[in-house]
Each structure stands twice: as C-alpha cells, then as structure tokens.
C-alpha cells in the first residue's frame, strides 16, 4: 500500500520544511523524498547530532540517508548541484538523485539575468536564476533535464541559443563559459527518471518549497515565486501514482512567529527579540536583504489552510510548529479553525527534538 506525506509551508517560506522533512525521514527510513516545486533557491536546513547541511539541490532527507527525486515542476542548476553533492558526500549524506525528464535546467545566463535585470531585482530574487529559468521556458528557448543527456553538439546549440536570447554577443568569453558549463554537465552521471520510478517505493515524502503565501497563483503579485507552493503539484503526482486519498497525509508548517525573506507585503513587521536562534540560515544577502519578522498572524494561517484545502480537502492534516523556544509567547490553538490529526512542536534545530503536543 503506497502512502504519501506532503510537507507544506503556511507562510512566506522559511517555516521549517527542511527540519520537518528530516523528522518524517527519520520516522520513515524506507522512503524517497520528492521535491515538487522550486529548485536551487531552497535553503532547507537540517541538523543531525551537531552536523548541519543546507539542502538546495538535494531533498532534505539526504543527510538522513534517503534518496532525492526532483519532479518536472522543479529547476536544476548543474553547477550548484555539483558543489552541493561534494558537500553531502563529505558529510556522509545520500547523493542519489533522480530527476524528471521535464525538470527545467538553469544556466549561468539565467543566473546573470536574475542578478542584473532591474525588474527582477525590484520584484525580488534570491539570485539563483529560478525566475529567469521559468520565464525563458515559456518561450522557444527551453532546456530540460532530458537535454543533459542529448548529444553534445545538440546541447551546445541549445545553450548558445539561450546565451543569445539574453543578448550575449558571440565571442571568446561566451564560448569559454559555454564549454565550462558543458564540462560540468558531463562530469555528472545523470539519473533521468519519469514518475514510474517512484513506484519502486511504498512511502513517499513530498517536500514543498517556500510557502503558500508566495504561490504564483495565490500570493500578492508581483512579489510571488514562479511556482505552485500549495499541495497542487504533489497531489497531481500522487494521482498519477494511483495513491488513494485516504493514504495522503498533510504536514502544514509554521514558525511560532511570522517571517519573510525578500521583497513584498506582510501583514505586520516587528523586530522580535529572538533567543536560541544561533543556527538561523536566513541571514542578510544582497538580493533578499534582511529576514523580516513579525507577530504570528492567525488570520493568514487560517487563510493558507483553507486555500490549500481546495487542493487536498480530503487528506489528514497535521500541524507542525517550529522555533517554539525562540520567542516567549504562547501559540493560540483556539484561533485556528481547522481540526488537526496531530500537532507537533520543535524546540531545536535537530528534528529528534520534535514532540507531539
């Protein structure tokens, strides 16, 4: 009997999806972890017995020893992936990664576009090329995971087309960049696997990216991500794998306070006096600036829960609250109008410190 657990952030991202995925990986060690949105912009932090890894190009079960699968809704950057693979190897993590043939590939030219285009900067970017990749793939200059194993000459022509699409003029520097990128691609043994590969597992953990309030269809435009961050994609994959509704379980994640890393609206902003947050991953960077904080907005939580129910109203629902030891306030369960199967709380960056409450 095949089962699925879907991890979804209820806010603007940074809720604790990585630690929650690791928690479920620890409970279900025979699983594979499936990323169903986003890509290399993820910064999902996992700590196991003092060892820390920030998962971006691998799912957050990798440090625990579980394999990763990136769906067609994800992006892949070969250079970032190669660097992270070496980090994971050194830490004893699992670097087995399967990628759907239609996952979108980010090139150095997409990263340049994200970091240098004024409109992208004003919109908000983490500088990893995600938005540019997704936008480019709406036109004729597409590049998919399956192209990574195409004949070299064909792949090179596609990469040249992408460079010219962004206005790069043919010359020695562009040729050098193209061939360097090709060398990286050719140094990786790609596992390109459609969804039938997932049938070899009876337990699947679906790891979301960012949060429901950044969803490209439901967030406050224009400061949204170029992805469906609800359970929409995960549920569609479950249906392709013929997983019954009764065997799908949701894990909705929130911090004990509101956060947003990047431009855009949030309902309140307050510089909170946080404690025990030495392992915070979301720090200042030149693209997203400071991590903003605020009081937890129960109206937004209820909105996000009701919105996601439009996609998975039938599933069992669990609530996960992270960073419970960082703020001296009580979580007001009575202000949530959804019935949960279980409520879990985390008082530590290490997922073994989760407990049911």
From TrEMBL:
UniProt-annotated location(s): Cytoplasm
Enzyme Commission number(s) from the entry: 6.3.4.4
Residues noted as binding Mg(2+) in the record, renumbered to the chain: 14
Residues engaged in binding IMP: 14-17, 210, 225, 289
Cofactor note: Binds 1 Mg(2+) ion per subunit.
Record keywords, A-Z: Cytoplasm, GTP-binding, Ligase, Magnesium, Metal-binding, Nucleotide-binding, Purine biosynthesis
Pathways involved: Purine metabolism; AMP biosynthesis via de novo pathway; AMP from IMP: step 1/2
Catalysed conversion reaction: IMP + L-aspartate + GTP = N(6)-(1,2-dicarboxyethyl)-AMP + GDP + phosphate + 2 H(+)
Group of enzyme by EC: ligase
Cofactor(s) recorded in Swiss-Prot or TrEMBL: Mg(2+)
Gene Ontology process terms (BP): 'de novo' AMP biosynthetic process; IMP metabolic process
Domain of life: Bacteria
Pfam family, one: Adenylsucc_synt
Active site: 14 (proton acceptor), 44 (proton donor)
Assembly: Homodimer.
Role of this protein: Plays an important role in the de novo pathway of purine nucleotide biosynthesis. Catalyzes the first committed step in the biosynthesis of AMP from IMP.
Family: Belongs to the adenylosuccinate synthetase family.
HAMAP family, alphabetized: Adenylosucc_synth
Protein's name according to its UniProt entry: Adenylosuccinate synthetase
